[in-house]
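User: I'm designing a mutation panel for Transcriptional regulator, TetR family and want to avoid disrupting the core. Could you give me a predicted structure to guide residue selection? Please restate the sequence first so the numbering is unambiguous.

Assistant: Good idea. Sequence first, for numbering, then the predicted structure tokens:
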Amino acid sequence: MVQRVDPDIRREQIADAVIEEINAHGLRSVTLARIAARTGLAIGSIRHYFSDNLREVMRFTLGILIQRVVRRDVGLSDDPEARITDAIVFAAPTSEQERKENTALVEYRVMARTDPELAADIAAASLAGTGAIHALLRQALAGRTIDEEALRREALLLFTLIEGFSFNSALSSAPLREEEVRAAVSATMHRLRDAYPSSDQAVE
């Protein structure tokens, strides 16, 4: 009896092959034939899961890359300030697999400059990311004197820090070191906190 393969597992296996191909040869090198060679699947099998459409494979892989970044935010601290540090550290690529996924994601972002569909997917993910950072920062600075415009500006600065780690990693042959990322984020959070007095101090 032929064992049935979970379609979701098979699609993710194909996405992993796309990620490996991007890291080896660049995003524009990806073809169904190259994916088949990396997975050991027949091209017909890949077409079965993605309707004979390489673009569908590529957009699915982008979705997987975004999901994997989001899924890293597990085990966040209960302390609001430490929680935002954890979230940024988890988003940074600090393992070899995360470095590969990040490199692929950066290549997608470059291609999205002239591809409206990819641009829409990436813009939605960026909007969700900035929103999450904004919400975490609001909690971390609760009880401090900061207006909404300053809060928005500081959240944008922190999100830019995430993007800086991402592009730095994409240009490197090794993952970022988690302890260095955490130290940089912690220092940024300490400076940010000290820039805004507590509400009690403001009253005095």
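For picking mutation sites, this is relevant: Residues 27 and 107 are 6 Å apart (CA to CA). The chain has a mean pLDDT of 90.
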